[in-house]
Amino acid sequence: MKKLGQYWGYLIFALLIAAWWSKEVGPVALVILSALVTLYFLFRAPGWCGAETRQHTLCRNNAYGLLLGCHFREHKRQN
After folding, report:
1. Burial class of residue 16 in the structure, from the number of CB atoms within 10 Å of its CB (0-12 exposed, 13-18 middle, 19+ buried)
2. Is 58 left (phi over 0), alpha (psi -120 to 50) or beta?
3. pTM for this structure?
4. Neighbour-count burial for 32-63, b at 16+ CB within 10 Å, e otherwise
5. What is the dihedral of CA 57, 59, 65, 71, to 10 degrees?
6. What phi and psi values does residue 23 have, to the nearest 5 degrees?
7. Dihedral over Cα of 12, 17, 22, 27: its sign
8. How remote is the C-alpha of 33 from its chain's centroid?
9. How many domains would you assign to the chain?
10. Which residues pair with residue 58 across a beta bridge?
11. What does the alpha-carbon distance between residue 6 and residue 62 come to, in Å, rounded to a whole number?
12. Eight-state DSSP code of residue 44
């Protein structure tokens, strides 16, 4: 159940793809699903930090979203 809470955006993304193929879903639902997926991937999706370190390599610490970095203060806006 914890993994479902962490990866809920992928389920919404699958629903969005299915909604695009369906002719029964209105544009309001598509906009709402698109906004949820965008917010998930920008701020909540688990991944690596990716900020450049002092050794000129990429940071491999865990981070959330594409816009947020890891626990290091300097990495918060670098990736």
Report:
1. middle
2. beta
3. 0.79
4. ebeebbeebbeeebeeebbbeeeeeeebeeeb
5. -150
6. -90, -5
7. positive
8. 14
9. 1
10. 52
11. 13
12. T
Q: Which residue has the tokens 């920008």?
A: 42
Task: State the pLDDT at residue 73.
Answer: 79
Q: Which tokens sit at 1? A: 């159940």
At residue 32, the pLDDT reads: 96
Residue 25's domain spans which residues?
Answer: 2-75
In the structure encoding, which two tokens stand for residue 9, read together? 């955006």
Q: What backbone phi and psi angles, to 5 degrees, belong to 9?
A: -65, -30
Cα–Cα distance measured from residue 44 to residue 11, given in angstroms and rounded to the nearest whole number? 14
pLDDT band at 48 (very low <50, low <70, confident <90, very high): confident
Under the banding of pLDDT at 50, 70 and 90, the label for residue 2 is low
